[in-house]
């Protein structure tokens, strides 16, 4: 923690770390207090995943396809969280009157968004464990032993890029998304498709794969599949290349998120409407 | 401004502060001038009130000072820091309580929610938790400390939000209609706390907007009466009342024919305003200051001649409402003036 300032107030680092933890806490605690998530966030998404696993099994597809579908199902929950828990979040915060309290607080707005993102990752990981249990436990999908460290590295880079995108969407939705609900719906299924969640990304063809590369989800899933399954994953690009692209996307999205938040705040102060509810 | 000077700067200072809102694109029309050049200086340690009707510019003034809105022109400083150029420094020193606010996350308990807000100000846990508990006691919510927010009543939620405003121990606390919709006893208790809080530590300052006259009178060291974006008078409540002393302050209960709420008579040389309606008796209160040279009987005759039946007459001491009527030309709840 940085030392306190001369006026006795906390330094910037301490202030922003505490703000991040404060906002993260809502999601960490909230995830345990709403038991309905078991159905909406775990059971239902696991059903899609299970359908694909059973379909591949019925068709006699290579066993690696079942693993592809399980991994896709797990990552789908993160995309849902990025859309609904990050992208639409500032919009909901505005409607509840919370946004202006963030805007008058001395902490950085990025620390609030980081708290939301870390809390979201924690919350979604608890859901993902359910999908893992269904996929590898209930459905009996098997994978050969693999190296955990590269998988964690790819996962962290993917999450950074994915939640960086979520932070950017949060500002954009607030600016343009009066109907945030519909925008989220419009983005959910197409991204599932473009990310090749339930089939190898290369099946989209070169053009589709390039389009998928804009959204970190597809690249991340593809890279993780390659780490776990090796050549059986039918990967699109070499893992190193995909990780490098993801890292660039992470930086770009984080910079974009910061810039769009600043723009949003300046616009809000100029027009005086973004901290007003129902406008 | 050097730090030493800032330490001695007023809590709030505005110079020619102006804010104009452009007409929305989908509703073309004239731009709205919410603040038309406001000059105010609030010293540290003061409870300063802004009294004005809806649309007077009170909330716009507070939004600019709390860094939520840019002024169109002019200058605003809080604790010596410019609200545009040094917004970050201003934010470290302020807090805002808005009446009717419903912030917070339903899955959190009351105690956790207040702690969360303290984290946005970087308050260490060792200070934050005891302060939260103390504030919960102040707002009478110790028993609800472990209740989830989505299970609170509206009144409890308002009290929690009141506590939120103090959790960062601000230098300057902005309160925008803080007791709006609160029950009388809760509002009185919280006003008492605000007064004690300011006196408890040197330099703490409150800027309060309200349209409750009694609240302003009870709480404020000084008051500014604001209307249509302009400060029309600024002084202590007692000094303001002295301005309208002389003559009698009269309240007439007059019968009003159904659907005839606006057809009131003109009264020579008197500025009057509507007071509370009494629908059960079909009457309304008409308030005015009767100049010494004008006998009441003349006013009653004028009303009688215009078909207004007077059912009751009362006289009383000058109040802030009389000041408001004299300065603004209408009552706080009125849009109409009888002259």
Automatic annotation (TrEMBL), chain A:
<feature type="domain" description="ABC transmembrane type-2">
    <location>
        <begin position="36"/>
        <end position="264"/>
    </location>
</feature>
<feature type="transmembrane region" description="Helical">
    <location>
        <begin position="37"/>
        <end position="56"/>
    </location>
</feature>
<dbReference type="GO" id="GO:0140359">
    <property type="term" value="F:ABC-type transporter activity"/>
</dbReference>
<feature type="transmembrane region" description="Helical">
    <location>
        <begin position="99"/>
        <end position="122"/>
    </location>
</feature>
<dbReference type="InterPro" id="IPR000412">
    <property type="entry name" value="ABC_2_transport"/>
</dbReference>
<keyword id="KW-0812">Transmembrane</keyword>
<feature type="transmembrane region" description="Helical">
    <location>
        <begin position="239"/>
        <end position="261"/>
    </location>
</feature>
<comment type="similarity">
    <text>Belongs to the ABC-2 integral membrane protein family.</text>
</comment>
<keyword id="KW-0813">Transport</keyword>
<feature type="transmembrane region" description="Helical">
    <location>
        <begin position="129"/>
        <end position="148"/>
    </location>
</feature>
<dbReference type="InterPro" id="IPR052902">
    <property type="entry name" value="ABC-2_transporter"/>
</dbReference>
<feature type="transmembrane region" description="Helical">
    <location>
        <begin position="68"/>
        <end position="87"/>
    </location>
</feature>
<dbReference type="Pfam" id="PF01061">
    <property type="entry name" value="ABC2_membrane"/>
</dbReference>
<keyword id="KW-1133">Transmembrane helix</keyword>
<dbReference type="InterPro" id="IPR013525">
    <property type="entry name" value="ABC2_TM"/>
</dbReference>
<keyword id="KW-0472">Membrane</keyword>
<feature type="transmembrane region" description="Helical">
    <location>
        <begin position="197"/>
        <end position="219"/>
    </location>
</feature>
<dbReference type="GO" id="GO:0043190">
    <property type="term" value="C:ATP-binding cassette (ABC) transporter complex"/>
</dbReference>
<protein>
    <recommendedName>
        <fullName>Transport permease protein</fullName>
    </recommendedName>
</protein>
<feature type="transmembrane region" description="Helical">
    <location>
        <begin position="154"/>
        <end position="176"/>
    </location>
</feature>
<keyword id="KW-1003">Cell membrane</keyword>
<dbReference type="InterPro" id="IPR047817">
    <property type="entry name" value="ABC2_TM_bact-type"/>
</dbReference>
From TrEMBL, chain B:
<dbReference type="InterPro" id="IPR003593">
    <property type="entry name" value="AAA+_ATPase"/>
</dbReference>
<dbReference type="GO" id="GO:0016887">
    <property type="term" value="F:ATP hydrolysis activity"/>
</dbReference>
<dbReference type="InterPro" id="IPR050763">
    <property type="entry name" value="ABC_transporter_ATP-binding"/>
</dbReference>
<dbReference type="Pfam" id="PF00005">
    <property type="entry name" value="ABC_tran"/>
</dbReference>
<dbReference type="GO" id="GO:0005524">
    <property type="term" value="F:ATP binding"/>
</dbReference>
<protein>
    <submittedName>
        <fullName>ABC transporter ATP-binding protein</fullName>
    </submittedName>
</protein>
<feature type="domain" description="ABC transporter">
    <location>
        <begin position="12"/>
        <end position="253"/>
    </location>
</feature>
<keyword id="KW-0813">Transport</keyword>
<dbReference type="InterPro" id="IPR003439">
    <property type="entry name" value="ABC_transporter-like_ATP-bd"/>
</dbReference>
<keyword id="KW-0067">ATP-binding</keyword>
<keyword id="KW-0547">Nucleotide-binding</keyword>
<dbReference type="InterPro" id="IPR027417">
    <property type="entry name" value="P-loop_NTPase"/>
</dbReference>
<comment type="similarity">
    <text>Belongs to the ABC transporter superfamily.</text>
</comment>
């Amino acid at each position: 923690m940085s030392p306190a300032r001369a006026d006795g107030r906390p330094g910037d680092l301490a202030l922003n770390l505490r703000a991040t933890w404060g906002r993260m806490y809502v999601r960490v605690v909230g995830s345990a207090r709403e038991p309905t998530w078991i159905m909406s966030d775990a059971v239902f998404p696991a059903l899609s995943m299970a359908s694909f696993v059973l379909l591949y099994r019925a068709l006699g597809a290579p066993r690696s396809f079942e693993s592809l579908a399980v991994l896709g199902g797990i990552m789908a929950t993160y995309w849902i969280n990025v859309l609904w828990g990050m992208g639409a979040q500032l919009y909901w915060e505005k409607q509840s009157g919370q946004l202006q309290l963030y805007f008058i607080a001395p902490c950085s707005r990025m620390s609030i968004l980081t708290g939301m993102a870390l809390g979201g990752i924690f919350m979604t990981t608890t859901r993902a464990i359910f999908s893992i249990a269904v996929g590898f436990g209930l459905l009996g999908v098997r994978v050969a032993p693999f190296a955990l460290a590269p998988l964690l590295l790819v996962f962290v880079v993917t999450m950074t890029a994915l939640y960086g995108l979520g932070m950017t969407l949060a500002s954009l939705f607030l600016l343009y998304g009066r109907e945030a609900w519909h925008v989220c719906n419009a983005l959910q299924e197409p991204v599932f498709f473009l990310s090749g969640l339930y089939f190898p990304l290369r099946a989209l063809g070169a053009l589709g794969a390039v389009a998928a590369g804009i959204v970190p989800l597809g690249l991340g899933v593809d890279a993780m599949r390659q780490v776990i399954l090796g050549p059986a994953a039918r990967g699109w690009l070499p893992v190193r290349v995909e990780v490098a692209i993801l890292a660039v996307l992470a930086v770009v999205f984080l910079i974009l998120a910061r810039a769009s938040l600043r723009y949003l705040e300046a616009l809000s102060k100029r027009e005086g409407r973004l901290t007003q509810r129902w406008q | 401004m050097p730090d030493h000077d800032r330490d001695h700067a007023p809590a709030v200072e505005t110079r020619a502060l102006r804010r104009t809102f452009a007409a929305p694109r989908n509703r073309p029309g004239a731009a709205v001038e919410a603040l038309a050049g406001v000059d105010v200086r609030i010293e540290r340690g003061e409870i300063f009130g802004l009294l004005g009707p809806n649309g007077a510019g009170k909330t716009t003034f507070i939004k600019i000072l709390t860094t939520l809105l840019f002024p169109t022109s002019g200058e605003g400083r809080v604790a010596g820091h410019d609200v545009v150029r040094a917004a970050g420094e201003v934010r470290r020193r302020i807090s805002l309580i808005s009446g009717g606010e419903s912030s917070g996350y339903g899955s959190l308990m009351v105690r956790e929610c207040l702690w969360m807000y303290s984290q946005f100000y970087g308050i260490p846990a060792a200070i934050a938790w005891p302060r939260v508990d103390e504030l919960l006691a102040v707002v009478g919510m110790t028993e609800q400390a472990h209740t989830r927010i989505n299970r609170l009543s509206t009144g409890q939620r308002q009290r929690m939000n009141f506590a939120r405003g103090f959790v960062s121990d601000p230098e300057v606390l902005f309160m925008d209609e803080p007791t709006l919709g609160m029950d009388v006893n809760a509002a009185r208790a919280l006003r008492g706390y605000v007064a004690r809080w300011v006196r408890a530590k040197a330099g703490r300052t409150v800027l309060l907007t309200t349209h409750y006259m009694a609240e302003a009178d009870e709480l404020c060291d000084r008051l500014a009466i604001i209307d249509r974006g302009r400060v029309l008078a600024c002084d202590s409540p007692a000094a303001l009342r002295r301005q309208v002393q002389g003559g009698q302050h009269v309240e007439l209960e007059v019968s009003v024919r159904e659907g005839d709420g606006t057809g009131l008579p003109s009264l020579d040389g008197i500025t009057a305003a509507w007071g509370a309606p009494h629908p059960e008796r079909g009457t309304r209160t008409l308030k005015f200051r009767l100049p010494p040279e004008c006998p009441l009987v003349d006013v009653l005759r004028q009303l009688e001649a215009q078909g207004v039946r007077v059912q009751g007459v009362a006289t009383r001491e000058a109040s802030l409402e009389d000041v408001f009527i004299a300065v603004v030309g209408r009552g706080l709840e009125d849009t109409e003036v009888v002259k």
